[in-house]
User: What shape does this take?
Amino acid sequence: MSTAGPHQSIGLTIISRTVASLAVGVVHTLERAVVGEARMRTARGNAWEAVCADRARADQRAELDRLVAELAAARAAARDRQPVS
Assistant: This one.
């Protein structure tokens, strides 16, 4: 016959979840206190930073493509000007 006694044990998973939850709360509160409300990282802020980084990389790629095209045109022009012997 199995009866549930008044002294039920608490599992390790419940303890670890509780500790993790408390740790997240402490870190969040600490970040809020250190950097301030206005500078808190948010999902919207992270997304905007990612968009800006993508745009910057696209601009750098476009500039590199332009430089490579100029170099290729200069080499072709130099090759066309060389006398044929």
Notes: The chain has one domain: 14-81. The CA atoms of residues 24 and 30 lie 10 Å apart.
